[in-house]
Target: LacI family DNA-binding transcriptional regulator
Amino acid sequence: MTAGFRDARPSFARSVTISDVAEAAGVSRQTVSNVLNAPDRVRAETRERVTRVIADLGYHPNHMARSLRASSPRLIGCRILPVHAETVAAIQDRFLHALAEAGQECDHHVLLFTAEDVAAETERCTALWRAGAVSGVVLYDITPDDPRVGRLTASGVPFTAFGRTAVSTEQYSWADVDNAAGTASAIDHLVAAGHRRIGFLGWLEGSSVGDARARGWLTAMDRHGLLAESHRLDVRGEDTTSSGTRLMTELLDRPGPPTAVVVATDTLAVGALQAVRDHGLIPGRDIAVVGFDDSPAATALGLSSVRQPIEEVGRLVMAEMLRLTDRTSGADGEPPAEPLHRLLTPELVVRTSSAPLLSSPPPDATAQPLRA
Model:
């Protein structure tokens, strides 16, 4: 190698991507694409710099992938997660249905695939995109430090997320539900009904959704000045019906049990309702229960629940995918379009499980109310 010349080729053993060229040339991926496909739209000095980097790196455009994208229906990839046997809230099913409906209106379709874990999912997404099988991918079930976001960004794969990480949310497109606002609205409802000792059944820490719902309970209870009365009534476990029964039993067996509970999911809430009945109590009369997700089970059981605007999330995510994958403008010097950042407010649906607190105990001694 000639002295003073830095080899720009990547040191890792993989094919050179358009993102590698863009980084080495100090331009956007769109500018590299324009140099290859519409060179007249790029300034001469920029075009020459990008062309030199392409030659130095030995970049070869994937003509087969380009042909596939142009000749076949455009596909958006999404990993489908396995459904646990003890769940009643199939939120991903609703989301995928909304995503597919929104895509169909614009001649796009959803390509579902499975993967063992997020590492395998990232590899699958990248392979599908590089092969031209998908125009981009949608991420679901985001964690606070989700590694998929950084890896797909580095690989240049267009993606939009349902959910968001704890940091760097300004760097990628996402739509999310304000889960903290959802549980806070449930607290406001229960406080207005007369409850003061309000418990929380949630997921184990480490989930963006679960942590946000727990935070909503905490901040709302603090706002109402009720944390001192309820600080020991926050219990966590796996998101299963049996876990909900176990956690609720634990709360009901404590000295000074809650008069109401907010539950992070309808799955946990269905289990909690079983524990309430096992104690000879009646939901809504002796203790109030509010779930989250407004599943069909909530309707069938008269369970108050927080409804997510899943259909709107699906439409927003698909619209953003179309914007990211169909974008043809963006000559060098033109500022890129802002990524989607949309936080949607859920809605509390009140049913019989969270009726106002009784002012006097019922005559039935086997179903005494739990009162603050």
Q: What stands out?
A: The chain has three domains: 18-61, 73-171+310-344, 179-308+349-367. DSSP finds 14 helices and twelve strands in the chain. Residues 1-13, 328-334, 359-372 have pLDDT under 50 and may be disordered.
